Each structure stands twice: as C-alpha cells, then as structure tokens.
Amino acid sequence: MEREEVKKRIAEKFGAKVTIAERSPKRVYVYAENEIWTDLARFLFNDLDARFDTGAAVDDRDGVEVMFFFPFDKEHYFVTIKTFAAKPNPTLNSISPFIPGAKWIEREMFEMYEVNFRNHPDLRPLLRSDGRPADYYPAKREVKDSHETVRERDDGETRADETAGKAPKGKNP
Amino acid sequence: MVKKIPIGPFHPILEEPEFFELHVDGERVVGIDMTIGWSHRGIELLSEHKTWDQVPFLVERICGICSCSHPFAYVKAVEDLCGVEPPLRAQLIRVIAAELERLHSHLLWTGLAGHFLGYNTVFMWTWRFREPVLDVLEAVTGNRNHYAVMKPGGVRRDIPQEEIPNILKMLDNVEKENTLLTKAILDDPVIHARTKGVGIFNKEQCRLYGALGPTARSAGYDIDARRDHPIDAYDKVKFDVILCEHGDVFDKAVVRQLENFESIKIIRQCLKLLEDTKPGDICTEIREVPPGEGFGMYEAPRGEVFHYVRSNGGNMPLRHKVRAPSFNNILTNEVSVLGNTVADAGLITAAVDPCYSCTERMGVVDRRDGSRRILTEADLVRLSHEKTEEIRKRIAADRGNG
Amino acid sequence: MSLALKALKKSPWVFHVNTGACNNCDIEILDCLTPRFDVERFGVLLVGSIRHADVLLISGPVTQNILPRLKRLYEAAPRPIKVVAFGACGCRCGIFRDGYNVVGPIDKYIPVDAYIPGCPPKPETIISGIVKVLNQL
Lengths: 173, 402, 137
Description:
The complex is a heterotrimer of chains A (about 170), B (about 400) and C (about 140). Chain A is built from five helices and seven strands. Chain A has about 170 residues and is of the alpha/beta class. In chain A, the strands form two sheets. Chain A has a five-stranded mixed sheet, with helices on one face. In chain A, strands 6-7 form a two-stranded parallel ribbon. In chain A, a hairpin with a 4-residue loop joins strand 4 (about 65-70) and strand 5. In chain A, about 35% of the residues are buried. Mean pLDDT of chain A is about 80; it is low at about 160-173. Chain C has helices at about 5-10, 25-35, 65-75, 85-90, 125-135; strands spanning about 15-20, 45, 55-60, 60-65, 80-85, 100-105, 115. In chain C, the strands form two sheets. Chain C has a five-stranded parallel sheet with strand order 2-1-3-5-7. Chain C has a two-stranded antiparallel sheet with strand order 4-6. Chains in contact: A-B, A-C, B-C. Chains B and C meet through helix 1, helix 5 and helix 15 of B and strand 1 and helix 2 of C.
C-alpha cells in the first residue's frame, strides 16, 4: 500500500490521537497515545498488511519511549509507531496477543527498562541470569551509571583512561 | 504422560549456548520452552560508551559468522541519520564483502546440517569448499573472520586491482563445487526421507512470528531486505530471490544452496562495476553526527539484521538497538518443533541456522516421580544418526525388492 | 611416564565450551578439524561430553549466566585436565571487558594451562597452541 494512502487511512481512523511525521520518503513515523497504541499496531498489521519487524525502547528522564517497526516491503518504506510510557512504573498494553513474534522483544524491554506489558502471555525476563535480583533492570538510566566500575591494571594501579573516556553523566537530553 | 527433556546450555558443535526444554509425550514433542541469554554480554549498553567510529568493531563481534552484516546495518543506520551516501566504489566493496560472507555462511550451515544427519562426509567436503572463500576474504579485507571493512561513510580498505582475477577464479571453482553439492543434496533419498515434511513452518505463521531470511523464504514468504529495502549497490545489480513453498528442513537447505549461486552472480556483477570506479575513492567523510535517530537493515545470511541508533549530537550513540535475525527465527521453533520426534528436534532447531548452541548433557525428568535420567548430547546426535541409518537400510531394502 | 599419559599424548580429546564468545572462535576450532588443517592427524578429536575430555577448550569472556555452569563443568572433568583459554576474549575478555554482564576472564575462576590469543586465532595459531599443550604433559 502506498505511503500517502497509509497515512490517510491512519489519520482517518485515529484522528487527533496520532501525529504523523515523515523524515524521508522511506521513513514514516506515527506518534500514538497510550490507549490506542495496540489498536494502531493491530490496524497496521491486520488491515494494512504490514510486516512486523521488531521494537526498541529508549529510556528518557520522564518515561520510556517504546517503538515498533512495521516495514511495507513491496513499497520499500518503514512505518515506525511510537508511544511514551510515563515513569514511574511505565505500563503499556501488549501487542503479542495478536502478533506472537513480538513476545520476546516485549520481554526484553520489560527486562531492560521495566516496561510492564499488560496482557502479555508470559512476561518474564528474557536474558537475566539466576544470580541477579528480580528487580534488576540493567538499561535504566539510574542503574546504568552503576555499571561503570573502575578497573584495576594487572599491576594493581587504577586505570585512569578507562574512567576518563566515559560520557559525562547526566548531560543527555 | 508428558516428560520434560532439558537440552542445554552447552553444545560441542555450534555457537552460542542456549537452553531448550522439550516437553515430550513418548517420542512426540508437544511443547518447548526456550531460555536464552547465556552469552548475553550487554553489547547495546557497551556501544553507548564507544564513539561512532569504534562501534563497527564492537558490533562485528556480536556474531562471528555475521561479522559483515551487523556493521553493514549499523553503518547504514548512521548514514540514514546523517543523510550521507558512500561513494560507489565503497558501496561495491561493501556488497562484495557481504556476499562473500553469505557464501561462506551458507556452506558452513550445509556442512553442519550434514553432520547432524550423520553425513560427516558432507561436513568435511563443504568446509573444504569454504576455505577458498575465506582465503579471498583474507586477501581482500585482511582477516579470515572479523573483516573490519565497514566504516560510517565508506569502507576501510580498497580492493587492489590485482586481486580481482583471484576472486574470479575462486568464484568459478566455488560455483562448480556448489553445483556438485546441490545435486548431491537433491538426489539423495536418505536426505529426502530425513528432512522432507520435518519441522514445517507455513507462510501465515511466518507472518505472525516475523520469521526472516531463508526460514521465511523456504515457506514462500517473499521477503528479502536486499530487494525490498535496497541499500548501497544492491539496486545496481540483478539477482533473484529464491523461494520454496513447503517450509520444511529440506526447503531451507535448498534455499541456502541456491542462494549461493545468486551471491556468486552478485559478486561477479560488482567486480565488473568496480572497473569503472576510481581506486582509492572509498569514503565520504562524516564530520558530525546530528541529533536524531536512524535505522538500517541488511539481509544477513540468516535473515534481516536491524540496527537502530539514536544520537544527541555527541560523539557516542545515545541508544543503539540491535535485532539479530535469530531473535525472531529461534522463536519459530515454538511451532515448528511440535509434533516431531526427539530425533528430529535437534535438526529442526538447527535448521533456522540459529546463532545457538545447546548442550552436551540432557537430563530426562520424569514428572511423576521426579527421577532423573541423564543423557549426553552425544546421545542426541546418536539418536539422529540411528534414524538416518534405519532409513538408509530401509531404502536399500526397497531397492533390493524393486 | 605412565602408560596412560603416553596414550593421552598420542590422542588428546578436546571438549569445547563457549562462555559467551561471538562463535567465531568456535568456527575456527571446527575449521581445524576439516581437511585443510586436519588436526585429527595428531589424534585430536572433538568430543561431545566433558567426561571423555583431556583438554577443556574455553572461548569467550565469562558471562554472569554461564559462570555457575562453567564451574560445574570444570568439577565434572576427569583428571588430568588441561584448560586452554581461547581467543582474545578468553584470555583477557577482549572488547567485552566493560560489559555489565561479563564477570571476568576465565583464569579468574578456574586455573588455565595455556592461552591462545587472537580474534579469532588463526588455525595455524591453534595448531601451535595444541602442540605446546601436548609438550607440557
């Protein structure tokens, strides 16, 4: 389905609840509100016949930005749908009941960023080892800083360069 | 009565450790539970502490076999973010390196599949055919495996003009050997009996589970990121997308074998196009990475690799998301293993060519009394070999009667 | 030299463990077995169980998840066992040194007899490493 057609149909169906932007002819972005988020994904996947590719999450100060990518292969472009799950306790509806391929990526987001997906069939951490506490979310901003350990050289001295090369803390927008 | 068979997390043959729990009723598999994360190293978080130019070296170490595809997708993501296109010569060199990688990766899988079936001859032969490809890669990029050829904006090394005849000669040889191998696979009744109708994954399931690469194409699900989202020189070369229809293990093998010929075709065209470009013009300089986001994808041997980067205008990525094809493909085991026998389970889970490695030890836990029987991985391979042997005898007997 | 040790030198059986490597090392190990390099001519054989092994070949930085399994594996190995740390990651964690889930190189947890560096080591390096391990016996 052509790009303009897809944009028109999304705008018709969801009206003011979505914002549609276009960065380049191959990249269409749809920002959605939380409550219509799963409807939008279902509409793209079932009605507009997009392929489900994958998802990503970006941690921000006030919440977690969650996005899923839906490529339209025949027309060579991507539709990215985005929503913002506000902190604390970011919670969203899960899309895996109707897209089983999203099961693992949602589990990964849950594990890394503590995004709770409601109605997910099996929301467990995907990669976490048994030795870690159950509430350890490694990619969260607050936790991430604690990973930067000062390493010791083989002769026992602290390596200055490894700590000096890190990005300054708290400067990210 | 349902028994659980844990397989994992170590395996002597393949790559990353992975843990499967097969739920079996007699010989039939009725359920599977997969645990991954054994080789979780936190690469996405590591790459947030590397500069844009350093990340390619990190991402090529995600997977040793896809070590050209991951940097390829990453540099495309950065170029998407910056809005630059590399010069034509750089595009061609990227495509050549990536297709050489596909060639060696598919040969590698065929060999391993042969090993799983109990055909160690296939294993030895294909891996011998694979060596010249690695030699060429070493000559072109400087390393047998981690090529370090990609760089945002271009490539790091030019292909010297005097190497080109060697590459062409290697391609001729590999084409001949691949023809031989393909014929051998298509003709062998035992391979037919072992792999046809095993581990079926149909087209609709492919769509639902987001299956990628040969796994999807073997079921007739027509996706190929090289054609659908052409990057670099892929819109300047002609190639076919190989499709099969059944989605069983046999079709997966056939798709991979036939894709080798397409790779050879692409490399030949690229080498021809390379003649018209100026040697040394291999990089567009990227001075600054603007704030924003970009993503890139590339059709790796196993399926589409997807990289997403977010920048805040600094010299490191703010967020870097990697989605390897096996992430989607391994999930398909959930469906394709069901209803098959334990002897086939190893083959099916291997057929998606996962970056996986399961175990040498499996314990059969009887749910009723909790008693535990320890089987070794050798037993799993032995089960598979025994089945092949049985089929071989049966076919020989049929021929004798006929 | 005891008879058992003499026999062992003629045919060391190798068990290979990946503790979080990028699987390139693993592929190169397999490559050594195939016709071009063919370490089987020294009697080296890759086995499917740690109970049969004389040499434990470990590639990769040790991740948090795999650490308890690695220790168990080492305990299960028959003695004498030679442990070889394989690749840059096996020796010093390589590029994954700062990863949050990487708990350190192999020799931090189990004693290592030989190191084969490289990313990945070339098959020639692997063969030379194997010969050195055999000479240690």
